[in-house]
Amino acid sequence: MFRNYLKIAWRNLQRNKTFSLINILGLALGMACSLIILLWVQDELAMDQFHANDERIFRVMENQAWAGQDVSTTPSTPGILAENLKKDFPEVEKAAMMTWEQNMLLTVGNTFGKEKGRFASGDFLTIFSFPLKQGDARTALARPDAIVISEKLAQKYFPHQDALGKVIRVDNTDDMMVTGVVGELPEHTSLKFDYLMSWERFVKYNAWVKEWGNNGPRAFVLLNKKADSEKVSAKIKDYIKQKTNKQTNNIELFLQKNSDAYLHSNFKNGKLDGGRIEYVRLFIIVAVFILVIACINFMNLATARSVKRAKEVGVRKVVGAMRQSLMGQFVGESLLISFLALFVAILVVAMVLPVFNELTEKHLTFRFADPFFWLVLLALTLLTGLVSGSYPALFLSSLKPVVVLKGVLKFKPSATFFRKGLVVFQFSLSIMLIVGMIIIYRQIHYIQTKNLGFDKENLVYMPLEGDLKKNYPTFRSELLTQPGIKSVSASWSDPLEVGSSTIGVNWRGKDTTQRILFNQTAVHYDYLKAMDIRLKEGREFSPDYGTDTTNYIINEESARKIGYKNPIGQELTFWGRKGIIVGVVKNYHINSLHVAIEPLILHMQRKEFDGVVLIRAEKGRTKEALENLESTFRKFNPRYPFEYKFTDQEFGNNYKSENIISKLANYFAFLAIFISCLGLFGLAAFTAEQRTKEIGIRKVLGASITNIVLMLSKDFLVLVLLSSVVALPVAWWAMDSWLEKFATNRIDIEWWMLAVAVLASLAIALFTISFQSIKAALMNPVKSLKTE
């Protein structure tokens, strides 16, 4: 019997080639999209879960409450936190500190290069399961001069040698001994590094990390097997208050599972508020949408063409076929189409995956050796086949032989209503994706073109390191003589991120019970000129004023917080140093556009120069400026490689995730519309076929081609309009929720964005339908009526 059903199914596919192709292609595209997203979601969910003790590894987080501001959450902690947690809490089996990623110069003989790495304390390599190929994880970071390097660096600096025990010179100042070699890091790690250096070296050059009042490094703990993470989190909540003996301290600690941090990194007012997990959910929803759209195509075409199978069902029932066997046959046909679609989908994914990987910066591959992968494929195919074939099977198997054998099958109003409802649902999903595509694109465009309060074009910055630190004034003076260079300055912070903040700011009349957080950075002369920041009142720092080393420039937000009506010339005490406010600048963005502009204090660098050099090139002469910058740099800092960054490019990199989402939204919206139009094309073709004689009669009676096209098109266009009524409120709510992540730097959802989505849907639907409508309208009525 099964063999017989298979033959019938195959013959039906061959007999109705156009509709079979539409069904297979629609399902294949839906399944291909779902498969790609499944691979991406698997990759995202696997991040940081490869560590042997994953369930017991936590990072320590801080909630900070400041006057007039929401609670802010940060992974930055005091540099002495880990060792004290391990000492004071028996539940903490191991603890380690780790810094942010840093670029440092490594030199071995004549080989040198800037490499990316971190400083980490002793327990780091025993907490995490990074593949240590040489050395002992327990002692590799114990020595003050220890450095653990990657296999890549070992091959670069010690080719054909055993790197263990060899010496590497760091920043031309310290000799470090290789105490370990780490194998290639797993793809699913968010902690990237090419080297790890001992914590003692970091402390040596950063004494501030020994104080409870200074934050910066990250703290990680490994809890013992019996520890309850929630109870430990509650126990350490007021730990910093206890250590500093300040009950007014506004900092509270809590634990977050390390493998959760990648996907759950956003906090709002001290509470978890999403992160990349939102994109994971969004992609899953999109995959479901597109697969449902493809299944709806199948349902609609199968039920619409049921008139062709009605007599077959009637005959089968007369000769004794049971409803269950008929349902099995039709579901079987659906499953056959699903498996054929799966084969096509795998080919599509194989072709598209390299492009998708390049776009998302992933390394997704088919996991053919993984049994779970095959189970997922089988489940996806069976689910698609059962969902798409269920309603047609129920409908066809319910037909009564007495009715269908008398003549032409007429659909009941309920069946017609259901089919139209499916079209409405299908296009509603498509319109939602189009609205999302438009709004995401507009938001990304708004971010990329937003006035940040300074000019990010033609602004280059480079690290202030090596001999540049002591020779910066001379280096700057010589640069200013070079053609193409307009201005030069220096800053502790790069142009797009002021990462340091403090509450150590006082002024006359300040409420001493208020704890207000100010961002701060040290700058050099011509900082405002180099950044092209607008001065609201007062002046910039100048060598003509010797007292400027203790004076301050603030932004408008700081002026508002301080409350001075006329801030110029007023006293301000910063970190215990009294000075006066000499300038107020217009607010400019010092951090991510996801947060509102915050108070900022600029002060002069007083001792050794550090941070970055800012170089503004004259418009249209950037290439010339870079050539002169390089030659001057090599003269002053020959032992370091020449490296620089364009501010506008780095700004774009900061919003890479949003750019990727924007591009994917475009592709998925197009795919959803294309699949929907495949179904609409099939339905239009079937409708035209069913009404061939009616069209012939109307043409004989004088109907024009335009009349006939409108007659065949209007029912479908009404369904698309109804879809808009359903989709627009849902799409508006969803996109408004997404835009909230951009704080005050967001667009408003305007009526025209929704109107464009509706008009685009109507135009695409009309174009799809009109092909079949015009073809039917142009048919010679003699041919359509001669068999009557």
UniProtKB/TrEMBL annotation:
MF annotations from Gene Ontology: transmembrane transporter activity
Membrane topology designation: Multi-pass membrane protein
Domain annotation MacB-like periplasmic core: ranges: 20-238, 429-627
Chief location bin: membrane
Record keywords, A-Z: Cell membrane, Membrane, Transmembrane, Transmembrane helix
Pfam family, one: MacB_PCD
Gene Ontology cellular-component terms listed: plasma membrane
Residues that span the membrane, as ranges: 21-41, 279-301, 330-352, 372-396, 417-441, 667-688, 716-735, 751-771
Location(s), subcellular: Cell membrane
Domain (ABC3 transporter permease C-terminal) ranges: 284-399, 668-781
Database matches in InterPro entries: ABC3_permease_C, MacB_PCD, Macrolide_Exporter_MacB
Protein name, per record: FtsX-like permease family protein
Organism: Larkinella rosea
